[in-house]
Each structure stands twice: as C-alpha cells, then as structure tokens.
Amino acid sequence: MAQRVQDRRAEETEEQRNSRLSDMAQRGQDRRAEETEQRNSQLSDMAQRGQERRAEETEEQRNRRLAVMRQRSQQRRAEETEEQRKENTFWAEHNVYVSDNICKKNKSEAGI
Questions:
Q1: pLDDT beyond 80 at 109
Q2: Is the pTM of this model over 0.90?
Q3: What is the C-alpha to C-alpha distance for residues 10 and 92, in angstroms, rounded to an integer?
C-alpha cells in the first residue's frame, strides 16, 4: 500500500503535486473555518444564557454573586502578595549571599 502511494507520487507532475497540496491546504482551511464557526456559536450561546440568567436574577442574588466575585478577587490578590513576598525574600537572600562572596573575594585579593 505505502509502496503504491510512493510510486504514484514519484510519477505525478509538478502541476499535479501542486494541485494535490493546494487541495489539502484548502481542506485544512475549510476545517478550521468550520471549527471556528462552531466555537463562536457555542460562545455566543453561552453569553446569551448568561445574559438571560442575569436578567432573571433578583437584586439579592446579584449582590451575592458580586460579593463572591469580590471575595475571590481579594483572595487572588492575597495569594499573589504572598507569592511575591516569597520571591522577594528569596532574591534578597540571594543578593546578600552574592554580596558577601564579592566582599570575601575582595578582602582575599587585598590580603585582608
């Protein structure tokens, strides 16, 4: 089977090869366009459902939803701050270590 395909490809002209590759490229573009259209349709449906849900929610439900969003945001900021603190501590300790080594090297070279 593979040998037949190989033989057929060896016999095809440059024009036939270009036509075959062009057809393959076109099919790929068509497939990607279809996938994009489906994805956009799904996203549009999701957005529509979200709008409908929000239109139906009461003021109390809306306030609860916003409070949850605010709390999550605060937690994210707190976690980022903790991560940043850890990273800053690491680099501060690293810089002190490097600085100490430079001082030791300079003292050694100066004979101190």
A1: yes
A2: no
A3: 65
